[in-house]
Prior knowledge:
The chain is mostly helical.
Amino acid sequence: YKWKAMAVFEYDSNDCPRNFTAAQQRRMFMGMSRCLYHKEDYDGSIQLGEEAIQMNRHFPQVHKYVALSQKANGDKEAAVQTMARAVHYETPWDDANKKNVLDIYENMKNDIE
C-alpha cells in the first residue's frame, strides 16, 4: 500500500515495521484523514480513516472524519452506518466520547430523515 499526500509526503506501509509502532501509524492515519477532510479531499480522508479503523476501531474519534467525509461526498447513508459502528465499538469505557459519538450519529441520522 502506497499513498502520496499533497505531493509532499509519500507513505509506504512496507517501511512501517521499522519506523512506526502500530499506535503511531493509527495516529498518523487519523491526523491525515482529518487534514484531508478539511482540505476537502474526501476520498483521501475516507481511505486513510478506514485504515485507522482497521487498526483499532475502539480508539476515540477514529470513525468521525470518515463519516464526515462520506456525508460531504453525498453518501449520507454510509456516513450514518459508519457512525452507527462508532456508537457500537468506540471507547465503551469513555462516557464522554460515547455521548459525543452518539450526538454525531443522531445528527447524521436526522439529516437523512
